[in-house]
Write a structure and sequence with these properties.
Elements lengths: L1 H9 L4 H44 L6 H15 L4 E9 L11 E3 L12 E3 L14 E2 L7 E11 L5 H4 L4 E11 L11 E3 L2
Antiparallel strand pairs: 1-4, 1-5, 2-3, 3-7, 5-6
C-alpha cells in the first residue's frame, strides 16, 4: 500500500489538468470582459456615427426633427434591438451661450444681479434667468446652434457583471453640436424683464 502511494506521489501525468483548471476561470472572466468592452466600444461608435449623421441632417432648412430622431433611433436599435434610447436636443443663439448665465440686457443699478426692473436674454425660453445647459427645446431656426445628447442603455451580452461587480445595464452616450445653415435671418432670443 505504501509503495502504491509513493508511485502516485511521483506521478506527473494529469498535472496540466489541474493547472488548466486553476487558470480556466480567470481566463474566461478576462475573455468575457474583453468581449464586453469591445461590444461597448462598437455600440458607442454606432451611436456616435448615427448622431453625426443626424446632426448633418439638422443643418438644412427642411430638417424635420421627428424624422431625424426616428432615423437616429433606428440606427441604434439595429445594433441593440432591446436598447432604451434617450434623445435630448436644444438650440442656442450662438456657441458662446452654452453653459453660461443668461446675459442681462438692462441692469438698473449695475450690480450684475437680476433685480426688479432688470431684463435678460432668455436663451432657453423658460422664463427664468439661469445657466443655459440644454438650450431652447427643439432644433431652433436659421443659423442656430443645435446640441444633441443621445444615450442608449442596454443589457450586457455576457454575464460579466456577476464577476466584476458592475451593473447589468450598460449605458453609452454621445454629444454633438452643429450650427444650422443661415437660410434666413436668425431670430433673436426673447427679452424678459423682472417685475
Amino acid at each position: 500500500m505504501t509503495a502504491r502511494l509513493l508511485t502516485l506521489r511521483r506521478d506527473q501525468s494529469g498535472a496540466t489538468v489541474m493547472e488548466f483548471g486553476l487558470l480556466f476561470i480567470p481566463f474566461c472572466i478576462l475573455l468575457m470582459g474583453g468581449m464586453d468592452v469591445g461590444y461597448q466600444v462598437y455600440v458607442r461608435t454606432v451611436v456616435a456615427g448615427a448622431l453625426e449623421a443626424a446632426a448633418r441632417s439638422t443643418t438644412v432648412e427642411s430638417a424635420d426633427s421627428t424624422t431625424i430622431e426616428a432615423v437616429l433611433e433606428d440606427a441604434v436599435l439595429k445594433v441593440m434591438p432591446h436598447a432604451t434610447v434617450h434623445i435630448q436636443k436644444g438650440s442656442f443663439y450662438s456657441y458662446a451661450q452654452i453653459n453660461t448665465l443668461e446675459r442681462l440686457t438692462k441692469d438698473s443699478n449695475g450690480n450684475n444681479q437680476l433685480d426688479n426692473g432688470d431684463c435678460w436674454e432668455d436663451i432657453d425660453d423658460d422664463g427664468t434667468r439661469n445657466v443655459v445647459t440644454t438650450g431652447k427645446s427643439g432644433i431652433g431656426g436659421a443659423d442656430d446652434v443645435v446640441r444633441y445628447n443621445v444615450s442608449a442603455s442596454y443589457t450586457r451580452l455576457l454575464p460579466i457583471y456577476h464577476f466584476i461587480g458592475v451593473d447589468d445595464v450598460a449605458t453609452v452616450s454621445a454629444v454633438t453640436l452643429v450650427k444650422r445653415q443661415p437660410y434666413a435671418g436668425q431670430s433673436n432670443p426673447p427679452e424678459r424683464c423682472k417685475t
